[in-house]
């Protein structure tokens, strides 16, 4: 089987639309499945899609979406996993476009463009990243690639350990970073998903988002080989190597302050040394773009008609 779509749900009325958006895809029905994981803590209202032969329903009873997603992934039979929220939807032809990109690249993560809408369903912007290959430095800096618009190799997902059940909010970009630590990314020009954004109606606990996001980033920075992977990713980014060196420095200097405030002196000193090394190596210390990257929050120029700041705002969806 090619793909398994996992839809965790808290019982939103939009669930049927999310499920039907997958079932109506142009791929042969035998090549994909839909796994709905009911985390609402109550039975789902009866609906016609529940008896569809491609649909499986599981119950997790208020365990939060990371656990629900991991539970669905555990029984998925697809070579690729697709994660869709119950208030989002796939667009026509999405799975076929993603399948083609996956077969051509064999990347761990393939994605398409994303139509972002407000909670009333009104289109806002199109997220149009043009990033491929080794995206570790971009992911660590704050680049967000929506799960809803993506396919992830099942073997890469499980090798990375799946979603961290301790996270609620930044769990998607945390997974992205852990997969980017070893895997590559590929893209398609197709607009593959419609994703609702905004805090109103969101199931994310935004009061804890900044803290948990930095904790998740810290766990990746502690990995053996992180500095080497960041440096290689910056070198492979193409234009503006000084900018990406500056982003690496900012990562480590931000972590230095984080650990200093918590009395973790040895970790703080290690982060300071890594941040300094990022600035000193390769003659980037005197470049203006290097210091711009150090001094400013990450800006993703990926939206038609504007820019966004994923590092400060976090995942706007969910």
Could you please say which CATH topology of the largest domain applies here? Spore Coat Polysaccharide Biosynthesis Protein SpsA, Chain A
CATH class of the largest domain: Alpha Beta
Helix-strand topology string: EHEEHEEHEEHEHHEHHHHHEEH
Fraction of residues in β-strands? 15-25%
CATH H-level homologous superfamily name of the largest domain: Spore Coat Polysaccharide Biosynthesis Protein SpsA, Chain A
How many distinct helices?
A: 12
Shape: globular
Give the terminus-to-terminus CA distance. Answer: 27 Å
> How confident is the prediction overall: mean pLDDT?
88
| CATH architecture label of the largest domain | Alpha-Beta Complex
The computed structural class is alpha/beta
Give the number of domains.
2
Report low-confidence residues grouped into runs of 5 or more. 303-318
Helicity level: 25-40%
How many DSSP-defined strands?
A: 11
Radius of gyration: 20 Å
What profile does the largest beta sheet have? 9 strands, mixed
Entry summary:
This protein is an alpha/beta fold and 318 residues long.
Describe the structure.
With 318 residues, the chain is an alpha/beta fold. The protein folds into two domains: 3-206, Spore Coat Polysaccharide Biosynthesis Protein SpsA, Chain A (Alpha-Beta Complex), CATH 3.90.550; 211-313. Helices cover 40% and strands 19% of the residues. The chain contains twelve helices and eleven strands. The strands form two sheets. Strands 1, 2, 3, 4, 5, 6, 7, 8 and 9 form a nine-stranded mixed β-sheet that branches. The chain has a two-stranded antiparallel ribbon with strand order 10-11. A hairpin with a 5-residue loop joins strand 6 (109-117) and strand 7 (123-127). It is globular. It starts with a strand and ends in a 5-residue tail after the last helix.
């Amino acid at each position: 089987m090619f793909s398994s779509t996992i839809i965790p749900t808290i019982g939103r009325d939009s669930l049927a639309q999310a499920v039907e958006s997958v079932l109506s895809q142009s791929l042969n029905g035998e090549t994909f499945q839909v796994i709905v994981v009911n985390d609402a803590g109550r039975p789902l209202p009866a609906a016609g899609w529940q008896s569809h032969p491609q649909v499986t329903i599981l119950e997790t009873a208020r365990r939060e979406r990371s656990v629900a997603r991991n539970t669905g992934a555990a029984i998925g039979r697809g070579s690729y996993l697709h994660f869709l929220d119950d208030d989002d939807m796939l667009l026509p032809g999405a799975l076929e476009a993603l399948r083609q990109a996956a077969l051509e690249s064999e990347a761990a993560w393939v994605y398409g463009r994303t139509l972002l809408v407000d909670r009333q369903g009104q289109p806002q912007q199109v997220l149009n990243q043009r990033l491929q290959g080794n995206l570790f430095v971009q992911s660590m800096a704050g680049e967000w690639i929506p799960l809803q618009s993506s396919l992830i190799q099942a073997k890469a997902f499980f090798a990375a350990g799946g979603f961290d059940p301790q996270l609620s909010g930044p769990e998607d970009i945390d997974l992205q970073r852990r997969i980017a630590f070893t895997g590559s990314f590929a893209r398609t020009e197709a607009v593959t998903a419609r994703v609702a954004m905004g805090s109103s109606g969101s199931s994310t606990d935004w009061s804890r988002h900044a803290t948990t996001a930095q904790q998740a980033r810290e766990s990746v920075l502690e990995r053996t080989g992180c500095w080497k992977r960041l440096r290689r990713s910056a070198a492979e980014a193409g234009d503006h190597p000084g900018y990406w060196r500056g982003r690496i420095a900012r990562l480590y200097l931000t972590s230095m302050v984080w650990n200093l405030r918590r009395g973790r002196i040895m970790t703080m000193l290690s982060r300071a040394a890594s941040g300094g090394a990022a600035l000193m190596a390769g003659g980037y210390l005197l470049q203006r773009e290097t210091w711009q990257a150090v001094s400013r929050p990450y800006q993703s120029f990926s939206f038609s008609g504007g820019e966004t700041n994923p590092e400060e705002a976090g995942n706007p969806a969910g």
